[in-house]
Amino acid sequence: MTSGPKISTIVTDIEGTTSSIRFVHEVLFPYAAEHMARFVQQNQAREDVAALLADVVALAGLPDDNIDGVVAQLQQWIQDDQKITPLKTLQGLLWQEGYEQGHFKGHVYADANANLRAWAETGMALYVYSSGSVAAQKLIFGYSEFGDLTPCFKGYFDTHIGAKREVQSYRNILSELGVTPEQVLFLSDIEAELEAASAAGMQTVWLVRDGEIPAAGAQYEVARDFDEVNQWLIGTR
Ligand SMILES: CSCCC(=O)C(=O)COP(=O)(O)O
Ligand SMILES: [Mg+2]
After folding, report:
1. Average of per-residue pLDDT across 79-104
2. Pfam families of this UniProt entry (predicted)?
C-alpha cells in the first residue's frame, strides 16, 4: 500500500471499525430491546420522547393512539437492525441509563484506543460517523473500557447528515468540515460505505478485523486494525 495526499482529517465508523460488532449486537441492541417498553411507558409525556414517538408513528404509518403498536414497531426495527433516526435516538437515551448505571462499558479495540489518542495528540482532526445517534456515539467513547475518549474527537455525525451508504452524506460531511475531500480519510468495515465516501472524493481504508479479506478488497486499502491504518498513514506499509 502507498499513502495518498496528506491526511488532515479522519472520519471513523464505530461498529466493526473502532468497536466490535458483537458488543453492539449482543450488548447494546438487546439492552434496548429489553428496556424499550418500560422506557416508552415512563417517558412518553416528555417533550423529546413524545416527538420521537410521533416520528415513529409517521414513518411507519401507525395509528397515533396505540402506544403498544409503537413499541412493537420499535422492537421490530431493533430486530431488523434498521438505521431509522427516531429509533437510533431512542436507543441512545436508553443506553445512557445503561452506561450511567454501570451495566456495561463501551467496547473499543485496544489498537483503536491507542491510535485515536496518538492521532489526536499529533493534531489530526478526528470525527465519528455512525448510524448510532450522536448521543450514543459520545456514550460509547465517553464510557469506554479505556476511559473517556471524547476529548480526541472534534465532532460527530449521525443519520441526520444522511444515510451511510449515500454519496450525498459524505458530501454533506465535507461541506461541514470545510476541507478538500482528498485530505479526509474515512474508515469503515462496510464496502458500500467506503464506495460512497470514495465517490465523494475521500480516501478510504477498509477495516477487515476478522476472517478472509473479501475479493473486493483488491480495490481498497485494507487494514486489519488501527496499527495498520497508522502504518499506511505514515507511509511505512
Ligand atoms: C454508537 S454505538 C451503536 C451503533 C449503532 O447503533 C449502530 O447502528 C451501528 O451503526 P454503525 O454505523 O456504527 O455501523
Ligand atoms: Mg461499521
Report:
1. 97
2. Hydrolase
| Phi and psi at residue 146, to the nearest 5° | -105, 20
Strand partners, 185: 10, 203
Nearest to residue 52, comparing CAs of 161, 204, 160? 160
Domain 24-100 grouped into CATH 3.50.80? no
Q: Break the chain into its structural domains and give their ranges.
A: 9-19+106-234, 24-100
ipTM of the complex: 0.96
- The domain 9-19+106-234 having CATH identifier 3.40.50.1000: the answer here is yes
The number of the ligand 1 atom at minimal distance from the alpha carbon of 190 is 14
pLDDT grade for 138, boundaries at 50, 70 and 90: very high
